[in-house]
Amino acid sequence: MADGRSRAVQKGHEIDDRKLRILLAVIDDYVHTAVPVGSRTISRKYETALSSATIRNEMSDLEEMGYLEQPHVSAGRVPTMKAYRLYVDSLLSGGTRAAEADSVREFFFDRVSQMQDVVESAASALSELTRYTAVVLMPKQLDLKVSCLQLVPMNRGSALLVVITDGGVIRNQVIRVSENLDSDALYAISKVLTSRLAGRTLQQVTEALAIYSRYSGADQEVCGAIADMASQMARQTGTDTIAVSGSHNILNYPEYSDVDKARAFLSVLETKDKLLSFLPEEREGFTVRIGPEMGLREMADCAAVCTSYRIGGGHTGTVGVIGPARMPYGRIIGILETVGEALTGLMGEAAR
Amino acid sequence: MADGRSRAVQKGHEIDDRKLRILLAVIDDYVHTAVPVGSRTISRKYETALSSATIRNEMSDLEEMGYLEQPHVSAGRVPTMKAYRLYVDSLLSGGTRAAEADSVREFFFDRVSQMQDVVESAASALSELTRYTAVVLMPKQLDLKVSCLQLVPMNRGSALLVVITDGGVIRNQVIRVSENLDSDALYAISKVLTSRLAGRTLQQVTEALAIYSRYSGADQEVCGAIADMASQMARQTGTDTIAVSGSHNILNYPEYSDVDKARAFLSVLETKDKLLSFLPEEREGFTVRIGPEMGLREMADCAAVCTSYRIGGGHTGTVGVIGPARMPYGRIIGILETVGEALTGLMGEAAR
DNA sequence: GTTAGCACTCACCACTAAAGAGTGCTAACA
DNA sequence: TGTTAGCACTCTTTAGTGGTGAGTGCTAAC
């Protein structure tokens, strides 16, 4: 022990090439097996030129430096959060990303429609691809402007109100209308409404209709319904929309074979605030939170890999993967990159 | 043992009032504790007038009759599937239902829009209310007829295509259109399309457009998009739509503290075919499948309580709750009843 | 600087023993 | 005849025990 300590001091805290190779080997092995990895394993599977004793010395140094730790005295070593951090950082700067672009695209390009749907199918595709929990966040947009309002006739007495905003947010709702309004009448109303309301924010539309409804007695009903819907949309788009998918993938990993841990994990996913707390603020590139960086006790041995995508109006959304800290970061980052690009494409299109 | 057997034979298999009370007490206790219940528990908590020895005799008879069983010789008793069956049947005929109508309605009447959304929010409301897994099934509808097609202008070069069918199914999608089509032009096209296609089934629309697109050269693009969408809708409405919510509520129950069991359960929920296999065919009233009645090995100790709701066009959907056989059936049935009625209301409205 | 060898540690497994809960049965009682 | 008390018995659960094996740290030799 004294020797190990002195070695580390002698050598400083510089991690040389061989140490790095060994560390990466430990991480790699642990990511796949979830079992503490011993010196012999590394010597046999990764660094065949070196004996287990040599590896042992190096591993001892790595432990001294804080990259490895032992669950108990005589088990193999497990990578620390610091090790994952190093690993991820090298990945991010390097660019040794697994390219699975094709299978990713294929996975969710056949289902496209409204933004909400896109968000959800992206989450589900992402979770199926990674076998981890996927999160897609569509941030709140307070400044959405209405670009079109239209009433589409349904059966007598009811119509479908469609509202389109410049952010590409589309919402529709069935409302009651006077029975003697035919298709043309509804279209006429739609044109008037659109011309008066286009360019205003949802909030303004809600307010304007309160005034407008005084003039046109017969259409009060319609105006009321639109006002309701606008305020509802304002509320919805003014709130962060989060889609979570594959949350129970966590059960596939042995670190969560304890049901209580699994439940704690799952309950975080259900709590919007907690979820938001560790999703990064709009930021370019990849963000990787490891262990304590997540800021939640329940997530202390988890990691989250996130990236951003662009939606209309200069806003950016966040898409990410959550799983045990032991994660194949390279693969995940590769997949996320593609998904992020795909989302930017889809959202951009809807928004344009 | 010989005595117990002879008693049962002597008395025939009639279950008298006291036996029934004891049986219900056992079920009740087990539902809440998930621990085999012993004679002393019943004697203390439920039938204070009787001693544990008496209860023991009765329980022995009940075991003989197949209503109770012992996990092992010297544990308490656990209700059998037959007991749950009896319990449920008496509930269904009697009508001792927990009335929680208000809280149920309150729960999801503020989010209404398209049928898909309704189905999903119903599922999520139901699972939150019951703390079990909720399933809402919207059965396939092969004969939906288009009642209205409308193009709503978005930014230049794109429009929102809205399709409404008589079943109240609404779908919309952004499509590309020629840049020189303004709002009026789009409306004119919509009118023509509606007049020609209204009343046809989705399948027919898909086919018709293949022919129609030959005539109007300029609008080929639009027709193609509509044809695509119609066939997509035909595919979607021609498939059973299932919303599952609260699947990991199962982790709250000790019978699933074994992760492998939990995973097996969850994987059934992800397999549409298996899920459909135990959801009842359209049938009035409540259907309760208990244990082996589920027909799946993975679900052998589960139960499903289902009821039906009406959607447009004489079709009915199914809504249900899945959980361990040990379930507070009274409460569940009460909640389901209200949710079913609410769904009928919402779907009916959308459909009318 | 690397390697072989050896003593040592500690989780894990199988096994055993004791404790506790609950039953079945018998005999006595109302 | 139904109910109850008492007791022997069963069987799970829990704690404790020893053996096994993986893996380490250290030392000495190369």
Describe the structure.
Two copies of one chain form a homodimer. With 352 residues, chain A is α+β, with helices and mostly antiparallel strands. The first copy, chain A, has three domains: 7-93, Orthogonal Bundle (Arc Repressor Mutant, subunit A), CATH 1.10.10.10; 101-139 and 240-351, Beta-Lactamase; 146-237, Enolase-like, domain 1 (2-Layer Sandwich), CATH 3.30.390.60. In chain A, 50% of the residues lie in helices and 17% in strands. Chain A contains 13 helices and ten strands. In chain A, strands 7-3-10-9-8 form a five-stranded antiparallel β-sheet, covered by helices on one side. A three-stranded antiparallel β-sheet of chain A has the order 4-5-6. In chain A, α9 (202-215) runs antiparallel to α10. In chain A, 43% of the residues are buried. The model of chain A is unreliable at 1-12 and 105-113 (pLDDT under 50). Chains A and B meet through β4, β5, β6, α8 and α11 of A and β4, β5, β6, α8 and α11 of B. Chain B binds a DNA duplex (30 and 30 nucleotides) through α4.
